[in-house]
Amino acid sequence: MSFDGMFTHSMVNELNQNLTGGRIAKIQQPFANELILTIRSNRKNQQLLLSAHPSYARVQITKQPFENPAKPATFVMSLRKYITSAIVQGFHQLNNDRIVMIELSAKNELGDIHEYTLITEIMSRHSNIFLISKETGKIIDLIKRVSPENNSFRGLLPNDDYKLPPKQDKINPFTASQSDFSNLESAGDIRQKFEGIGIDTSDEMFENLDSLQEFIKNYENPNPNAARSIKNNKLGFFPTLFSKTTKDPVSYENLSDLLDNYYLDRARVDRIEQQTKSITHRLSIILKKDKSKVKKLNKQLKQTKIMDEYNLYGELLTTYMSKIERGSKSITLTNYYNNEEVKIKLNPEYSPSDNAQSYYKKYRKLQNSIPHIKEQLEITTNEINYLESVLASLEYVDIEDVDGIIEELIESGYIKKKRKNGRKKRKKTVGEKFMTTNGIEMVVGKNNIENDKLTMKLAQKNHYWLHVKDIPGSHVILKDSDPDENSIVEAAQIAAYYSKARDSNKVPVDYVQVRNIRKPNGAKPGFVIFEGQKTILVDPDRKLVGKLKEG
After folding, report:
1. pTM exceeding 0.85
2. Angle, alpha carbons 93-98-104 (nearest 5°)
3. Which PANTHER family does the annotation name (predicted)?
4. Is 85 in a helix, a strand, or coil?
5. In the chain, is it the N or the C terminus that has fewer CB atoms within a 10 Å radius of its CB?
6. Cα 536 from chain centroid?
7. Which residues contact 45 (CB under 8 A, 6 or more apart)?
8. What confidence score (pLDDT) does residue 421 get?
9. Distance separating alpha carbons of residues 311 and 317, to the nearest angstrom
10. Are 4 and 201 in contact (CB under 8 A)?
11. Alpha-carbon gap, residue 395 to 504, rounded angstroms
12. Which of 150, 221, 210 has its CA nearest to residue 184?
């Protein structure tokens, strides 16, 4: 389901219940399109996420951690100037549209109270966040500035008058009368007639035509759930139970927890892509060149198969030298190894002896090239495997682990170290710790350098090592010499979760004692070889990972 007007209605109610009357304690803009307001309400701090992301635009309370960028954006500086310590007077929705308005009152340096409205417009790629002065009706600042050439309908720059988006001539379903719900012949009719109705919502409403008003009342007392569409099996999020069009619902305590869980991986991957776009582009170029090089090397290696033919031609020409007439373009001779006739091309400008030596020279050249080709093939293949593992790790690591991957690439020489790096230095701990249900400590590497340190330096020889089979993923160390079966299963689930197979089922995970692992000389970070391993099939389990991490 999309974050439509109906979902917005329920979310605004949830925000009013939790945040109205609170005070803005902190303002952050961790990413280009996202704003975090830390609001002190009901004796606790809560994070309000306002997103103008083109795909994930939304408003919600979030429990996900965020780091402040070293250099604050212009928009967040404007917000800090005007609404730091502001009181949240309330949230309201514009009719049933996807526009959420937060009413704020704040004191300036002289102690005078001013009123502001912080507006989030959820409109796909046109989504935006505005700070409006209620006294003047003008835009103080906005998260996405748009020049007049790209938007002729309304001004989208500071000091422009704030103008609402084009109004749709539709009915608000929450204020509609009984007669408004008549003569509806399709889900499309519902979307055409009523404001703020998404496709999934209209499909469910059409299945409940006889009790539409009762269905709409459910939005006042939500039953948040994630469920799969019966039509296409896609996972969606819903503020109330869509019993006619979805299946396998999983309930959540509130709408914000539902969105946190639904967007956890989607938003995480997108944020990582924002931070590493230039790096992944560079690695992809190197990877493309390496794969092209491997094709050429394999082609050269295939050509060496005719090496023995050149040696034979040289032998035969030397043996039957007297039969060769100078100036001949070819000659047919008997191969005395199998008594078959062999036709050999000749250079008419060469003497018979020079033709024989020419074939011997080709033979020696190919023979000498084989070790170099094989060496280059091994080096290039190892680099491909390494780069693919790094790119894969960006799909499953957490946002706070990106710095470690960047440091790894700097150490490996793939990217240059910036002279000034405003990022906060992380504590130099290796890996992330977990605890099995039965109390055995586990450590998970979050990049290849950490994987090497954990496995080859920090782990004891009798500890157990786990890794997904033949797929990029983290090294997991189970700190026990004789772990119980349940702990092995849980450690394998951790290994599967922190791998490219995170979204798969029945993931094969190898496990073996560290004493059976070694690292070849000159191998890339994270690459090891091992023997005597056993393999177990497990399903990655996010809830279990969270539980064991807390332990």
Report:
1. no
2. 40
3. NUCLEAR EXPORT MEDIATOR FACTOR NEMF, RIBOSOME QUALITY CONTROL COMPLEX SUBUNIT NEMF
4. coil
5. C
6. 26
7. 25, 38, 39
8. 47
9. 10
10. yes
11. 14
12. 210
Which pLDDT belongs to residue 1?
Answer: 65
From the list 541, 472, 540, 551, the residue with the least C-alpha distance to 507 is 540
Q: What pLDDT, in 10s, does the model give residues 366-392?
A: 899 999 999 999 999 999 999 988 888
- Number of separate helices (H) and strands (E) present in the chain: 12, 22
- HSE-CB at 430 with a 13 A cutoff on CA atoms is 16
Residue 226: strand pairing partners = 237, 250
For residue 53 the two structure tokens come to: 């992301």
- All residue ranges of the chain with pLDDT < 70 are 1, 265, 418-428, 550-551
Q: Contact, 403 vs 426, CB < 8 A?
A: yes
Query: How far is residue 543's CA from residue 261's CA, in Å, rounded to a whole number?
Result: 10
469 close to 509: Cβ distance less than 8 angstroms: yes
- Residues forming a β-bridge with 40: 23, 45
One-letter amino acid identity for 35? L
Tokens read off for 299: 């082609």
Q: Tens of pLDDT along 30-73?
A: 888 999 999 999 899 999 999 999 989 999 999 988 877 878 99
Report d(CA 256, CA 15) in Å as an integer.
9
Taking alpha carbons only, the member of 373, 330, 336, 334 closest to residue 352 is 330
Q: Alpha helix (H) ranges present in 304-335?
A: 307-319
Whose CA is closest to 373, among 437, 301, 422, 430? Answer: 301
Q: Which amino acid is at 479?
A: K
What's the chain's length in residues? Answer: 551
The pairing of beta strand 441-444 with beta strand 534-538: unpaired
Q: Phi-psi region for residue 186, left (φ > 0), alpha (ψ -120 to 50) or beta?
A: beta
Residues paired with residue 51 on neighbouring β-strands, in sequence order: 34, 58
Q: Which of 517, 508, 526 is nearest to 469 (CA)?
A: 508
Q: Are the CB atoms for 51 and 33 separated by under 8 Å?
A: yes
Q: Which residues contact 319 (CB under 8 A, 6 or more apart)?
A: 336
Residues 6 or more apart from 191 whose CB is under 8 A from it? 197, 198, 199, 202
3-state SS, one letter per residue, for 413-479: CCCCCCCCCCCCCCCCCCCEEEECCCCCEEEECCCHHHHHHHHHHHCCCCCEEEEECCCCECCEEEC
Largest CA distance in the chain: 113
Across 170-192, b (16+ Cβ under 10 Å) vs e yields: bbbbbebeeebbeebeebeebbe
Alpha helix locations (H) across 164-254? 187-193, 199-206, 212-217
Neighbours of 211 (CB within 10 A): 11
Strand residue runs (E) in 94-137:
99-107, 113-121, 128-133
Indicate the residue type of 298: N
Which tokens belong to 79? 């917000």
Q: Please report the pLDDT score of residue 393 as a whole number.
A: 84
Q: Are 191 and 96 in contact (CB under 8 A)?
A: no
Nearest to 11 by CA among 42, 49, 38, 43: 49
Pairing of strands 246-251, 330-335: unpaired
How many other CB atoms sit within 10 Å of the CB of residue 354?
A: 14
Q: Token pair for residue 330?
A: 């070819």
The whole-number pLDDT of residue 392 equals 84
